[in-house]
From TrEMBL:
Keywords: Membrane, Transmembrane, Transmembrane helix. InterPro entries: DoxA, DoxD, ThioSO4-Q_OxRdtase_DoxA/D. It holds the Pfam family DoxD. Residues 25-182 form the TQO small subunit DoxD domain. The keyword Coiled coil does not apply. It comes from Mycobacteroides abscessus subsp. massiliense. This is Terminal quinol oxidase, subunit I. The chain crosses the membrane at residues 20-40, 85-107, 114-132, 138-159, 193-211. Residues 211-340 form the Thiosulphate:quinone oxidoreductase small subunit DoxA domain.
Amino acid sequence: MTSDVSVNTKSNSGTWRDSAGLAVLPIRLVVGWTYFSAFWRRIALENKLDPDVSGYVGEKFNHFLPQALGIKPIIVFLLEHPDLLKWSMVVFTVVEGVTGLCLMAGILTRAMSVSVFLLALGILLGSGWLGTTCLDEWQIGILGISAGLTLFLAGGGRYSLDHVVVERNCGVAESCWFRWLASGPVDVRRRQVLGGAAAVLIIALCTNQYFHGGLYGPLRNKSVAPIIEVSNARISDRNLRFTVYRTEGVDVYGSFLVGVTVTESETGRAVVVLRAEQLSSLPAHSITNRYIAAVKTGAYGVIVPLGAKAELNIDGLDIRIDPRHHYYLSLADVSGAVWTQALQIDD
């Protein structure tokens, strides 16, 4: 039926129609560069694969954790195994570099388009919620997915090394696997194209709603104001300990805790008050970090990066805790935000 003909086939004269490949040439070159440039930035311009240097890409990966969709267990596993995380970042970077370079040159174009699709899907699920002024990471992810599908359907076109192989009548160019991995006429029906396009649109709409409320309900942006979850809060006459986990806010700088207060609920009396200068002088051993993004002291308090999770153990208190009363912990951010948590009393 003419309504369901192949979208990328040979003409009546037997020549390969490469007009689709020509039409998407700008997409192939630009998408290829975006992935190769990630490799170039981390390897050539700066060393971002060294865990001991500022800007380590593993820390950026840590920032994805709090609101990632469907891949949190993978992120947590890698963060809890730093050596494995390092090599995962190396492999990911090399794959980005190879994908981008091959895509620009038009080598194994369809195979590289699948790589683009999968890389973009990972970016979308991991960091699609980030973006301080606009939906930066979500747009990168969903456009990468749609570009991957488009390039798979079109192939490399005339200006690709795949096409050179076809033009030279190499035997391999006539094989089915070459056409599906590289370029050339393939039997893809219109209904399959419509199905793929519909699937990409559904992914776009669902993730846009999940991360940002873009379809209905109030719009939300989890990259604007910091939010810290407080848990495992306990106190005794000599010790205060609690766990902080930052789940929202800007990813390029930390939340700054400038005050820690313990209040007796029955009387409203503050039994512990730690100000910025006292927090900034906490010893290093009082902070136990779980992930790569590390909670640490700074000049004006305690810095909590996005995705960081740590236990703070503050010794040397000299107070009298009444076990008959209730106490709660308050953490104050420099922005004015305050987070509270009920305290358990240790014997």
